[in-house]
Amino acid sequence: MPTVQLAGVRNAATVLYVRDLRRTLARLLRPAGAHVIGMAAKSATPGRGVHVGGTFPMRAKVRSDLETDTLGRPFGWRRIHLVDGACLPSIPGTTPTLTIMANAHRIVSEAEL
Q: What is the reported pTM?
């Protein structure tokens, strides 16, 4: 039976593009008081993905310092909101991108900014 073998190839231009994108995003978000944490970004070879999240899961009633409320606020903070996969209560078995984006939109829509 024939087989297909695929290999991811890194593109040097992509590294520069992503760096410039982070800088532009940080510049655009700064006036709103938001901060981009660039060192938290990870990149992988094409076709590879990992489901990372649930580090500070949301709960209706926060029970520990390692949980957030339903607006993604850790440790009882009022003006800090986690809007990525870290605040998901669990990691979905499928690609989490749309879930993370929907939750981030919900947090931004409900939070008093």
A: 0.61
Positive or negative, the CA dihedral 55, 14, 102, 51 is: negative
Helix and strand element counts for the chain (H, E)? 2, 0
Question: DSSP class of residue 55?
Answer: S
Cα–Cα distance for residue pair 113/109, rounded to 1 Å: 9
The beta strands (E) that lie in 1-113 are given as none
Enter the DSSP assignment of 70: T
**Residue 49's pLDDT band (boundaries 50, 70, 90)?**
low
| 58 contacts: CB under 8 Å, gap ≥ 6 | 67, 68, 69, 70, 72, 87, 88, 89
The residue with tokens 């009882």 is 76
99: which DSSP letter?
H
